Amino acid sequence: MIKKEMIAMLLAGGQGSRLGVLTSRVAKPAVAFGGKYRIIDFPLSNCINSGIDTVGVLTQYQPLRLNTHIGIGIPWDLDKNVGGVSVLPPYEKVGKSEWYTGTANAIYQNLAYMESFHPDYVLILSGDHIYKMDYQVMLDFHKAHGADVSIAVMPVPREEASRFGIVVADENGRIVEFQEKPEQPKSNLASMGIYIFTWEALKEALVTLSEQSNCDFGKHVIPYCHEKGETLVAYEYNGYWKDVGTLGSYWEANMELIDIIPEFNLYEEFWKIYTKNDILPPQYVSEDSVIERSLVGDGSEIYGEIYNSIIGCGVVIEKGAVVRDSIIMQNTVVHEGAVIDKSIVAENAEIGARAQLGVGEAVPNRVKPSVYAFGLAVIGENAVIPADVKIGKNTAVTGVTLPEDYPDGMLAGGEILDKAGDVQ
């Protein structure tokens, strides 16, 4: 009989709609991060660094790139005969086919997978956060408190607490109350969406709540366990943790990597972040180029100027082009004389000669003001921007665009140009 003390279930099926065109063709956990990584690399690396060698990755929305990236788990040493990494999409059952309709419903639909390992504990993770955490330390805390459920929490500023699920705990760490995005928070401990369950407690809750529509951990499973009188404890985490769910937080988290002393360090020997590395030549940096405080991925060719930016693998920055405070994802070409300011350019895009991104004043986006904000210009993957056009702030552009798509050669701030049908 196969037996694992703890297995991990990694929820990676989210659409990530607040990332706008960055997630129109790819699941949020597969979005590029830090020049060479994808967001899902961080929880996967945490698992293997914590000694967890059995991980189920639950996919649903646009899973192709995620599946290709994970493969059989070789980069994370998760290519095991027993356990390892398994990609778990929804599948057709006798008489019906079901999508995952909530975080807990997704886990419920994979009870048989979990059962096959006879685990004592199950670790539930999200695939879209940037952080380093030793889950073994959290498991030790769980055991020491004789808990049925442990919830990882972190202190947040009081004024921001109403954005999170808030946990109220007593002096022993035992949870006495939950508040889901409360107007008047009773504590500043925010749930991180990381849970350890004893297997029996998880199974019983999921089976009991199986008819609940859109069954969710925060809204249904945790309150159910609490009401049942089970022991719930708060595991306080004080390291770096970033939810990169908005364009602003995604841009910020990338920019924090190039701080003089980065709060989140990619270079630590004892806690490596692993990823699928394509076989690429080294970077080429010409004698005329300028690079200041930036990360530049393998296989890139730099002939222009880069300041305070994250440049992905296989990117070409031609002579006379200037990139500032921006994220340029892999295999993008920035032609000569183009100027890119505070922008996010997705994979395989082409920026025409002398085009200017991120110009003018920041005005609210006309269609999606809550998504296309933060003063950013966002270019979708495979987009083509013609030569000599200007694009304002709080904008989004997708698809192959032509000069005639830009009245007077300009896409004004706050506008969207969607030639690929990616803006929903």
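[next item in queue]
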Amino acid sequence: MRNILIIGAGKSASTLIQYLLSKSDAENLFLTIGDLSLALAQKKTNNHKNAAAIALDIFDANQRQTAIQKADIVISMLPAHLHIEVAKDCITLKKHMVTASYISDAMQELDAAAKENNLIFMNEIGLDPGIDHMSAMKVIDEIHEKGGKMILFESFCGGLVAPESDTNLWNYKFTWAPRNVVLAGQGGAAKFIQEGTYKYIPYNKLFRRTEFLEVEGYGKFEGYANRDSLKYRSVYGLEDVLTLYRGTIRKVGFSKAWNMFVQLGMTDDSYKIDNSETISNREFVNLFLPYHPSDSVELKMRLYLGIEQDDIMWDKLLELDLFNSNKISGVKNASPAQILEHILAEKWTLEPHDKDMIVMYHKFGYEIDGVQKQIDSKMVCIGEDQTYTAMSKTVGLPVAMATLQILNGNIKTPGVQLPIRKEVYLPILKELETLGVIFKETEMPYVGYNPDKL
């Protein structure tokens, strides 16, 4: 049997494990699923004969190295900052490694050692990053191969709630880590290039600088800029491209409403609220509003934000029950962002019958034989249930497929890498199509960059 060690049995590992178990007899695979929670790891094995669960504390070096030594390849589904010790062990013990996370500086430093030991360290092979890289490079390579010159690349992705489960005024529920949603866009200005000019959007303006996207059958969406789009120029071989922009997708109206929290300061994670565990939602809101001897919290909020009582923005705030007097529990020594996350989690958690949805949208502008053209590539994936979500599917399947491709010797290039070479992306994209992750490409005359949208 060929042994695969999977470290981390959280939500994103569900479809990954299901896929590999479905292939285990034909491919002679045995899965060891390690997690701090043995019960969770056991649940994910589903009593399959080709799987075993182990309790694995990633901070226990002996336990970690013992598990890695027994494997032929290691999949780390841990939080990104915890990959590096696993990676170092994989170098020492000469094991291939696969993760869905961005390549950190510490991971990149292992590139030479990985190459010296003929090891493949495949990173950024989830959804975003992952499927975005592969689907983009496929079209970019095709354009270059027929003699075209890229002039524009825009890429958007979002984890959303499926239309049939969209039941609130925000048209949003948490389908991924809520903390990442609350802190989105922080840590520096969003940076991109538009028609050859560098552009920057500071955090306090980010959610009011959006552009609209139309996806047939699913309606209109909006996109706001990710932090640093420019790092993808060299990754994708687009050093001369005039426009390069990467963004996050939401339903229209979300960003304008979210901006209320940004302007109030509720998304700030840089300081702690005194006695945070003793205050109510109402008191939390009032912390950010000016004092008035007689005006209610509601009136002060409307005046501060400049919204009328009949404005849909006000209805969205009321829907979150922000003005109740119930004490906030379980948020001791918390930042504003942590308290906001706690409040939103009560309202935006997926119900047992709810389904999530992934939307990805690429725009490619190029010139060939003196003619400017454009290709739009769109993908929508709907989850099955609360275990096999669209997020779990689109993150886990590419990881599982890459793992199998490495084991079978189809991916040969050693080193720390991401999936931008044909030997990686062609077979994985082809297999993803058979499982419902399908990009629909449409070619049209080049419409360029609308100067009014950003």
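[queue empty]
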